[in-house]
Amino acid sequence: MTPIETGLSVILPVCGQTQAAEKAIPAWLTALERLSLNTELIVIHDTPLPESLLSQVKEGPHRFVLISAGEKKGYGHSLQLGVAASQYSLMFLTGLDQPFPIAEIGKLIHEINYKTEEGTIIPIDVVNFHRKGVDPTAWDRFCLKVRSGLERLILGTWPLPKLGWLPKSERWIPRAMRLWYGIRVHDPASRHKLIRRRILQKFIIQSQGEFATREVLAKANFLGAMIGEIVVPDRPCPFEPQPIQEPDTRKADEKEVWNSPKFVIHLPPKTESATPNTEPAAS
Q1: Which of 81, 100, 109, 91 is nearest to 13 (CA)?
Q2: How far is CA 214 from CA 174, 195, 277, in A?
Q3: In terms of CB atoms within 10 Å, which of 138, 154, 241, 275 comes out highest?
Q4: φ, ψ for residue 58 (rounded to 5)?
Q5: How many CA within 13 A on the CB side of residue 108?
Q6: How far apart are the C-alpha atoms of 86 and 63, rounded to whole Å?
Q7: Given 3.90.700.10, 3.40.190.100, 3.40.50.1820, 3.90.550.10, which CATH number is that of 5-131+181-259?
Q8: Residues with Cβ < 8 Å from 233, sequence gap 6 or more?
Q9: What separation in angstroms does the CA of 254 have from each of 21, 82, 140, 193?
Q10: Mean predicted confidence (pLDDT) in 104-133
């Protein structure tokens, strides 16, 4: 097996989001050039990218890979191809339907190591980047105060500060993922995740669609990975997010992942056994 080099692999699926890709790809290449480690940008596209964009891509210290998704379409399918083509020990999964301050990647990759108050460094396996979300309504604030007061009165615990407010259409997702998979993160549907390659090597991404972002967390959690979560910094995003254009496979993906999850078992290398003694035993 080829040894894994230390570096950062950015996997960027482009699912019919050509307009966002025209600004995101040059921004990613510029940000990666500033890092003092080996980097690569892997772009998986299901529609042809414009020649005007490809002409802007310049040779640099980074590795730039373009992969056609073929006839299959879907965010999860693109992640499968990108992970297979990557070669570095840290992997950043991202997307174009949610904003991300690309220029801040140099600071954010250090979140993979947590430094305690005593100065001890604790390696994190997966960092989930919580989206800033939307501004809470007065009713949202009131409900949060009531729930926090009840928790303190009944359980005697002080609730942790809320990381952000997701759109109402997505607020059920963290509760469902905690109930079914035991994942204790606040924004499991975030596309932006920093994960160590040794964790991704232990399972297979089965989802064809955007459920893959939650599948990665569920399987990493099952394997006992240490998962952290931080809020995406409120900094400018160089592209206008575009919705993912893919078939709706969420229910089928959820059913397959729940009923028959696929993991990878790495067996130890075979060793030559001693030659068996074929001589007859003395009587």
Answers
A1: 81
A2: 10, 13, 54
A3: 241
A4: -110, 155
A5: 29
A6: 10
A7: 3.90.550.10
A8: 101, 104, 108
A9: 28, 21, 29, 20
A10: 86
Find the Cα–Cα–Cα–Cα dihedral 43, 45, 48, 52, rounded to 10°.
-30
DSSP label of 203: B
Residue 33, both tokens: 């050039």
CA distance 228 to 230: 7
What single-letter DSSP state applies at residue 228? E
- 238-277 per-position pLDDT tens digit: 999 999 988 899 999 999 999 999 998 766 666 655 454 5
Sign of CA dihedral 13, 19, 25, 30: negative
Beta strands 5-14 and 38-45 are parallel
11-15, 102-106, 146-150, 253-257: range with lowest mean pLDDT: 146-150
Sign of CA dihedral 249, 216, 236, 137: positive
Other C-beta atoms closer than 10 Å to the C-beta of 224 total 9
Instruction: Sketch the domain layout of the chain as residue ranges.
Output: 5-131+181-259
Residue 47: pLDDT over 80: yes
